[in-house]
Amino acid sequence: MESKVVGTAAAAVADIGSGATLAVGGFGLCGIPDALIAAIAAGEATDLAVFSNNCGVDDHGLGILLSAGRIARVTSSYVGENKEFARQYLGGELEVELIPQGTLAERLRAGGAGIPAFYTPAGVGTPISEGGLPWRYAPDGSVALASPPKEVRVFGGRRYVLEEGIVTDFALVHAAVGDTEGNLVFEKAALNFNPPAAMAGRVTIAQVERLVAPGELDPAQVHLPGVFVQRIVHTGTQDKRIEKRTVRQESTR
């Protein structure tokens, strides 16, 4: 079998071209595939469509690609920490689909599990199901493109909205430990969105802090089996950033 191990982050993302769709793991700045994102930023790919819980901050994570004008569309659930994101969205430069956080996670997982769509009560009776959410603004502030209404059905006397599974060209994830077969172990909150994002990609690329040989991982501790991972690159210990640092003021007493 051909090895899944790739020597550098640049080589791992070399075939990600303009217009590609990307599922990106991580939660805030925790567990984000920063080395892979930086490698894409160093290349020429543009007009990217990104599916991720959030879009980083202005100078880190996906915020690097966003600030460089390389992202055309974002499907996300939380974007409140990125001023450039707000500027591009409100200025009509960026198309944005905002959806409930749990729905995004399940759409990614469903796509990876081969489930084309599912029904959920989340968002029923709101613009999520009824349509009209601004996906893209015009430069004059009017709505250039709005979300369409979605199918709603009743099960057991309760209404549910139909949501489609997400399948992307590539997925980018960060793991604490991985073996050369692609089996991955995530650390604490990095479990948020990394496994479902990895499942959603036709080609999944994992950066790992520690790379081990097959058999070194306890199978009971594996969070994502290697069947979902096509490429793995050893990037070493991650320089962890804090999204918001809050400290107590020094007492004057």
User: How do the helices and strands follow one another from N- to C-terminus?
Assistant: HEHEHEHEHEHEEEEEEHEE
Largest sheet, described in full? 8 strands, mixed
Structural class: alpha/beta
From the N-terminal CA to the C-terminal CA, the straight-line distance is: 68 Å
Low-pLDDT parts are none
User: Beta fraction of the residues?
Assistant: 25-35%
What is the residue-mean pLDDT, rounded to a whole number?
93
Strand element count: 13
What proportion of the residues is helical, as a percent range?
A: 10-25%
Rounded to the nearest angstrom, the radius of gyration is 19 Å
Global shape:
globular
The number of helices is 7
Structure characterization notes:
The chain is built from 7 helices and 13 strands. The chain is of the alpha/beta class and 253 residues long. Strands 1, 2, 3, 4, 10, 11, 12 and 13 form an 8-stranded mixed beta sheet that branches. Strand 1, helix 2 and strand 2 form a beta-alpha-beta unit. Helix 5 packs across helix 7. The longest helix is centred in the middle third of the chain and has 12 residues. It starts with 8 loop residues before the first helix and ends in a 19-residue tail after the last strand. The model has no long low-confidence stretch (mean pLDDT 93).
Task: Record the SSE blueprint.
Blueprint: H1 9-12, E1 21-24, H2 34-41, E2 48-52, H3 62-67, E3 71-76, H4 83-90, E4 95-98, H5 101-112, E5 117-120, H6 127-130, E6 134-137, E7 143-146, E8 152-155, E9 158-164, E10 168-179, E11 184-185, H7 194-200, E12 201-212, E13 231-234
Parallel strand pairs: 1-2, 1-10, 2-3, 3-4, 10-12, 12-13
Antiparallel strand pairs: 5-9, 6-7, 8-9, 10-11
